[in-house]
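Supplementary notes for students who missed Thursday's class. We covered one full example, reproduced here. Read the sequence, then the structure, then the short commentary at the end.
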Amino acid sequence: MSANARGKLSGFTPRVVRIRNRCLQSIARRQSLPVPTQADLEKIGDQVALGEAMRQWQAAHQPAQPKPRGGFELPKRPPARWRSPLAIKLAAVFVAAVMGVIAGRQILPRAGAQSSDGIVEQPWLAVTDSVVEGANSTVRRVNDDNRRMELTAADIAALIFRSPRRRTVFVDSISARADSMLAIRGRIASARFELKGDLRLVRRGLAELVVQSLRVDGTDIDPMMISRLVARGRARTEDSDRLRFDVPLSVARVAIIDGAIAMTRDRRGN
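Structure (token representation):
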């Protein structure tokens, strides 16, 4: 096998390269950097991940730093006598003690007030095989005897990204949490992503996550790019910030309540 053939086998697939290139162009535009042309993207190759490609592009297009006056660096000022190691340690202990008093009187009461108001940050829940099986069995129990069923954020993430009817690229290391919105993070190819969005029922049997924010490798990008990140097969004709998933036909309402997702059945539903 030739060296060229071995290089192609070790690189990303053409689809992953196209997604990486679109994200790189979108991030460069948001950071007011020159947008890479097709020729620039071809020079990057198919073995460089999005994060590394963005670092290279930023390094190559950062504005030059101004030179110091006179073209030379001024010598450092000699340290003052009071800046001895012992004096610095004593000052650090004093500052820590003062900050401890301030935290005890102001910061901690505020945290307690937030907890009493119900504003508590929810933990991230991993999406495992058992979560997928549990979510599928849980949604089927929304019936006449149990009109309301509560699911975790991980259950909803499993319905979105692990549904056999959904055609998506493989997403791994998925975890999720719910507070005022549903947050999901994971890995697509070599890129890390994190999104937040609102849940709503589209119609009987179909719900959707409306993506409000999207970060890829720590950089904010347009939420409309989520359709390009997770779509598989033929390219979409239009970008979308919606991720749709199936729910039972009996479900009439989907809402986030106290860190959980409640599915409610209509009394007149089938």
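Commentary. The radius of gyration is 26 Å. Residues 3-60 form one domain. If anything here is unclear, bring it to office hours.
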